[in-house]
Amino acid sequence: MTTDLRFLPLLANRDPDAPLAWRAGVPVSARQFLADVARFAPGLPGEGPAVNLCADRYAFAVSLGAALVRGHASLLPPDARPDTLARLLESGGPHLFALTDDPKLQAPGMQRVLFENRASPGDGADADGAVPAIDAAMHAASLLTSGSTGVPQPHAKTWRTLVGDVAVAVKRLCRVLERPSLEGLTLVATVPVQHSYGLESSVLLAMLGGAAFESGRPFFPADVAKTLASVPRPRALVTTPFHLKTLLLSGIELPPVDLILSATAPLSPQLAQQAEQAMGGVLLEIYGSTESGQVATRRTTDSEIWETFGEIRVHAEPAADGGPERFIFSGDFMPEPTPMADVLELLDERRFRLFGRANDLIHVAGRRSSLAHLNFHLNSIPGVDDGAFWLPDEVADGVVRPVAFVVAPELSAGDIIAALRQRLEPVFVPRRVVQVKAFPREGTGKLTVRALREFALAQLAEDDTPVQMAHMVPADHPVFAGHFPGQPLLPGALVLAEVMESIRRVPALVARLGAHPTLAAAKFLSPVRPGAALSIELHPEAGPGRGVRFDVRCDGVVAVTGRWTAVQESA
Fold it and tell me: Among 159, 152, 247, which Cα is nearest to 207's?
């Protein structure tokens, strides 16, 4: 192995006969991997770059290694959809070719090179195990941002940057696990390898950090449990908060693990504690971005404070346009100072608190919060399987009102609003809660800005979507002075006026009922007292009548129920 710092090895120093990967419970040695790379590389085109579309993690690793040996950069798109590949083809040059392990996958406009499992375990036993040296300054891979903040953009990484990125992570993980190295640790990942986090924390952590990886990508809870059980301990689960929550809610008994790595997203300490108790391992959150690589960690059950890797430092800079300050990470493996699209609170140059995306900040009625903060509390409610806040473009009464979308089969909208009242400032409690079956999340569990907006608009366009709104009755409302002194109550006419005001805040309901709706029925079942918390539930009706039924709950009890219609009907 060369010691010339201009060149860095394809694999870290390790026992060539120890597993680098596991495929369906069968170990694949580093020696076998090097033999497969040596066999595959000569068959690649002479010019590149390559688009690595391999789904199997081992096929991906061999293809990545073969491209590096051949002198080609690897482009890593988030998916293999035709429009994604078409955009790559436009920007990737005339010699772009696709590497795939799926014979059915089409890549129009590109030469397609199929990775085939031509070798059998043991075929590399006679190989000399020589580790190729890669030019450290070589453009090794281009990763695309997740698109969670907009349109995905490619970011080129040199081999030196990728090697350094993994090196700092290895030191932190060894410290947490109290092990001298990661030798023998097997990584089971639920995230795709083409994503920066999936790449760094599975394939590269094995190739450059001494661990091993399981080649599949289990998704369903039963598959995750089965895959974990198929590899020896010590083992680690590489996942996301969304996948982790789904796994724990399944009730499936999980094999013990020694380490849980989670991408950064709304991850409650309660969920982290449940994960550690269920699987027995330490849970670490990884913070970073496609642009920067992984730069910090925290143990969620211990502290809300993040600590940077290695010699990475962070500082704040005022924005040139007078906007919010930016937080810049620099040092160690990072080739240049890199700003993060997040709002931080710096404790010193290596420790910080994370508050969420800078473009995630929202202002409602003069109060400031972030969608990440709201989502954190929404997903912390027992019974909420998944949830997301969305800020619509439409403004009611000059105030933007957030809408909450939830997957919560056992909870009503009123239950969720009541729980959020205990967690959030009143202006951020949504007036509308929409029950959905699932969100259009990516393989990493991320929900992009564009996908959420399209999804939200489609859901809200449904005429039969129930609407939930909240209203607090002021204890000092002037009407109480003249209505039953000693036993004040809110007149029914004012309750109905509040229902109509709620309807007017929903354009779809205004369009349904018209400018002059008729009260078709109303029943007053319980008094509304000063300081009461009203929950107004609006139920658009299907069929020819197309009215709107309503229930007004006062502290959980139905106080008024009735129906508005667009035309005069008898009650």
Answer: 159
Cβ distance 506 to 457 under 8 Å? Answer: no
The Cα–Cα gap between 490 and 472 comes to: 12
Tally: H helices and E strands in the chain: 14, 32
The partner residues of 156 in beta bridges, in order of sequence, read 142
Tokens of 542: 């299907």
The secondary structure element, H or E, covering residue 158 is: strand 154-158
Query: Residue 32: left if φ>0, alpha if ψ -120 to 50, beta else—which one?
Result: alpha
Amino acid at 424: L
Q: How far apart are CA 223 and CA 229, in angstroms?
A: 10
The CATH-assigned architecture of domain 468-571 is: Roll (3.10)
Region at 209 (left for phi over 0; alpha for psi -120 to 50; beta for the rest): alpha
Q: How far apart are CA 565 and CA 517, in angstroms?
A: 6
- Domain extents for the chain? 7-356, 365-461, 468-571
DSSP one-letter code for 396: B
Both structure tokens of 304: 């809300």
- C-alpha span between 21 and 31 (Å, rounded): 11
Q: How far apart are CA 98 and CA 113, in angstroms?
A: 6
Give all strands (DSSP E) within 216-350, no chain letters.
Answer: 235-239, 259-263, 282-289, 293-298, 306-308, 313-317, 326-330, 338-340, 342-346
What average pLDDT does this structure show over 230-247? 92
Query: Can you tell me whether residue 296 is helix, strand or coil?
Result: strand
C-alpha–C-alpha distance, residues 381 and 437, integer Å: 17
What share of residues in the chain are helix, strand, coil (percent, to 5)? 30, 30, 45
Q: Is 36 helix (H, G, I), strand (E, B) or coil?
A: helix
The partner residues of 370 in beta bridges, in order of sequence, read: 361
CATH superfamily of 7-356: ANL, N-terminal domain (3.40.50.12780)
What is the three-class DSSP state of 275? helix
Answer yes or no: same fold for 7-356 and 365-461. Answer: no
Give me the architecture of the 365-461 domain, per CATH: 2-Layer Sandwich (3.30)
pLDDT digits (tens, 9 = 90+) for 351-395: 998 877 766 677 776 677 778 778 888 988 889 988 999 887 655
* pTM assigned to the model: 0.72
Cβ count within 10 A of residue 109: 13
Per-residue pLDDT tens for 21-66? 999 999 999 999 999 999 999 999 999 899 999 999 999 999 999 9
